[in-house]
């Protein structure tokens, strides 16, 4: 049996840091009027940081009066104090520090190769300082992609852009965007940007990035063949990411035809046939993006829901699904009222419907999909019982955490033995809005009930009830 005494160890090392009289390193940090000297022990610094292991090696150090002298002007005293506390004690309290200092700690941890610090700092910023990130998005975005261990915050920034792309794509920062980041954004099937706007922004970015164009030569009427060839070279790998099928006939004429010279011939021929002759796509150009106007889920989650609709339930998360669906918002509780009557009035359709529910005091997002919709139905042959249910084979319900990925997702499809009981006829009984199975997932005005139904159709939640904060329903159409 091994006994652990980490608490005492951390306390003792804290005393070594604060009251040391046998230090052998003096580190001067900061610049101008914001500087401070810290005293430390080279053996501890080298043991805890690969950076200091190299920087304090014999061949690199500078000594004065037998003391190692070290300078870090690019790290502020407050941030370096946090670094030393982590190195000596393994403890940090982010709550005590300003947003800028916590972000500075992330930058310092990347430079000082303190990989263990990186993820907790990113998680804290995303979960607790989201407003500050949004207010300083341009500044943060350009710095975070220069850091080697900031994938979590990088993904957060990219997903934020995909969800609300217009401000960033039309900002001055966009024109200097790294090409790899731009590629990532344009290839996302859930980028919530009108395709004609994506095309206009791409052209502007390409002109800015192409030598001989930009501010020096921004008037397209004065371009020669070499100018178009140069722009084509710049945009060569981006052109196939544009969903040209999303352009209207007028947009095709006004936006695409003038740049015919920069589009590969085989792609342009397909675009032309589609818009002029109505010819079906040959998989050269991509289908429209999956866009959803939801206040409940992030756009990236729609890719996973599309997978479920297509019965693709592997381990791939947020893939770039080749199938394209249109999600038309037909009911929103915060807009139309959260009640059974409102739901029935808006969702009385014999068409595929996706619904999403956000509940009060719960991090979970509940949802479901029915390819047959919700409608008043009576089976005249067996009206004594089956008029209460709608038959369906491809319905499913699910939940996942708010602002999270599908690693915490649970999906359940209708049991094949109970297809007849999949959807309770919510227009047959005024006490319910939507109702999957036998009260397995049921809306009763502003209350959501989740339980194991009598027919054990879904059985994923256990029994519970929630107060609905908002509910959305979308008519689903495959394009």
TrEMBL record:
Protein name: BTB domain-containing protein
Domain TLDc: 295-477
Coiled-coil region(s): none
InterPro entries: BACK, BTB-POZ/Galectin-3-binding, BTB/POZ_dom, SKP1/BTB/POZ_sf, TLDc_dom
Domain BTB, residue spans: 23-96
Gene3D superfamilies: 1.25.40.420, Potassium Channel Kv1.1, Chain A (3.30.710.10)
SUPFAM superfamilies noted in UniProt: POZ domain
Domain of life: Eukaryota
Family matches, as SMART domains: BACK, BTB
Pfam families: BACK, BTB, TLD
């Amino acid at each position: 049996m091994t006994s652990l005494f980490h608490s005492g160890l951390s306390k003792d090392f804290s005393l070594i840091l604060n009251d040391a009289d046998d230090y052998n390193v003096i580190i001067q940090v900061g610049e101008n009027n914001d500087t401070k000297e810290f005293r430390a022990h080279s053996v501890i610094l080298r043991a805890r940081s690969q950076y200091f292991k190299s920087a304090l090696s014999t061949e690199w150090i500078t000594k004065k009066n037998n003391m190692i002298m070290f300078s870090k002007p690019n790290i502020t005293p407050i941030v370096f104090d946090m670094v030393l506390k982590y190195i000596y004690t393994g403890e940090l309290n982010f709550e005590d520090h300003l947003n800028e200092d916590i972000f500075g700690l992330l930058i310092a941890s990347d430079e000082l190769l303190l990989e263990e610090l990186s993820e907790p700092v990113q998680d804290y910023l995303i979960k607790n300082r989201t407003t500050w990130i949004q207010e300083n998005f341009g500044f943060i975005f350009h710095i975070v992609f220069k850091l080697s261990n900031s994938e979590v915050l990088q993904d957060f920034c990219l997903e934020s852009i995909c969800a609300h792309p217009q401000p960033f794509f039309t900002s001055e920062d966009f024109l200097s965007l790294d090409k790899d980041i731009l590629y990532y954004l344009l290839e996302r099937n859930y980028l919530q940007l009108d395709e004609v706007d994506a095309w206009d922004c791409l052209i502007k970015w390409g002109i800015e990035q192409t030598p001989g164009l930009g501010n020096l030569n921004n008037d397209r009427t004065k371009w020669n063949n070499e100018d178009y060839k140069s722009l084509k070279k710049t945009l060569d790998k981006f052109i196939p990411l544009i969903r040209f099928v999303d352009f209207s006939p007028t947009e095709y004429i006004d936006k695409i035809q003038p740049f015919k010279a920069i589009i590969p011939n085989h792609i342009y021929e397909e675009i032309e046939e589609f818009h002029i002759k109505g010819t079906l796509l040959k998989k050269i150009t991509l289908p429209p993006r999956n866009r959803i106007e939801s206040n409940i889920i992030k756009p990236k989650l729609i890719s996973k829901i599309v997978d479920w609709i297509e019965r693709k339930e592997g381990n791939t998360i947020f893939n770039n699904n080749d199938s394209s669906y249109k999600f038309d918002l037909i009911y929103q509780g915060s807009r139309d009222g959260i009640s059974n009557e409102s739901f029935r009035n808006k969702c009385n359709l014999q068409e595929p419907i996706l619904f999403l529910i956000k509940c009060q005091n719960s991090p979970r997002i509940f949802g479901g999909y029915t390819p047959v919709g919700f409608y008043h139905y009576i089976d005249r042959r067996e009206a004594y019982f089956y008029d209460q249910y709608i038959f369906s084979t491809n319905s499913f319900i699910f939940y996942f955490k708010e602002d999270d990925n599908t690693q915490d997702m649970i999906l359940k499809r209708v049991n094949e033995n109970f297809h007849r009981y999949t959807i309770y006829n919510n227009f047959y009984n005024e006490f319910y809005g939507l109702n999957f199975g036998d009260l397995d997932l049921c809306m009763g005005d502003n209350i959501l009930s989740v339980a194991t139904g009598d027919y054990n159709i879904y059985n994923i939640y256990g029994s519970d009830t929630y107060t609905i904060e908002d509910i959305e329903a979308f008519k689903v159409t495959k394009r």
